[in-house]
Amino acid sequence: MSTVSSDVCVDIRSVHKFYGDFQVLFDVNLEIAKGEVCVVLGPSGSGKSTLLRCINHLETIAAGRIYVNGDLIGYSERNGKLYCLAEEAIAAQRRNIGMVFQRFNLFGHMTAIQNVMAGPVLVKGHSRRCAELLAMSLLERVGLADRARQYPSQLSGGQQQRVAIARAMAMQPDVLLFDEPTSALDPELVGEVLETMKDLARTGMTMIVVTHEVGFAREVADRVVFMDQGRIVEKGAPESVLDNPRNPRTQAFLSKVL
Ligand SMILES: Nc1ncnc2c1ncn2[C@@H]1O[C@H](COP(=O)(O)OP(=O)(O)OP(=O)(O)O)[C@@H](O)[C@H]1O
């Protein structure tokens, strides 16, 4: 049983993570409220992607706990000890944690709508009819209803990423994780994906976004987290972290990117 408050969606407690002998995360603590948009900034190699991947247990952790809506991710706890969950149980947890990657990872042999329908049909057991209605409404939401029958190779990078967002939404996750969703895109396609993410944020979706888009952080984030060398060194409202950073490492980073 966890003691997570019902307003908290993601609760990261004292997480440590190693790759072999290399410690990549040090005592990371972060609570994300339901409906919150949290943007994670930081220099390359600071551990942002790794932290995101720990949340849906694509990476194991050496110590600490991660809860999503009160559910301990990846492990069960008995008498203070952690035991790894079976793959099936981890897969069930991942269904509630959507992830959008830098490379869109769409199925190339499926049309846009088939990509969005796949999860609801194959994983959730929805009827094709039901999944098709849901997929169409999501494609409409990301502005791609007219592209539903096209294959990924017939879509631009920005359109493919918007399909990937619709696909993640189709699982009706508790939280959506974005791992640098615009960094593989040509600059002129970045805006349309950020607009889609802004729309999503307005609907009250809980989102954790790793990005270098400081403008997006300023406009959309409820909170900005700054990571450096595996640690959260600063977190707070965007205007406080971005305009008045207190930590010298945040100051140095922002002076380069702004
Ligand atoms: N599978 C892995 N095995 C060993 N080291 C890894 C692995 N994945 C990442 N690392 C190392 O862990 C550190 C953090 O990587 P991570 O990708 O989390 O950083 P990041 O802040 O997301 O960087 P970027 O902004 O460049 O994507 C880096 O030093 C990286 O080289």
TrEMBL record:
Pfam families: ABC_tran. GO terms for molecular function: ATP binding. It comes from the Bacteria. CDD domains: ABC_HisP_GlnQ. Gene3D superfamilies: P-loop containing nucleotide triphosphate hydrolases. Keywords: ATP-binding, Nucleotide-binding, Transport. Residues 10-254 form the ABC transporter domain. SUPFAM superfamilies: P-loop containing nucleoside triphosphate hydrolases. Belongs to the ABC transporter superfamily. This is Amino acid ABC transporter ATP-binding protein. It comes from Rhizobium oryzicola.
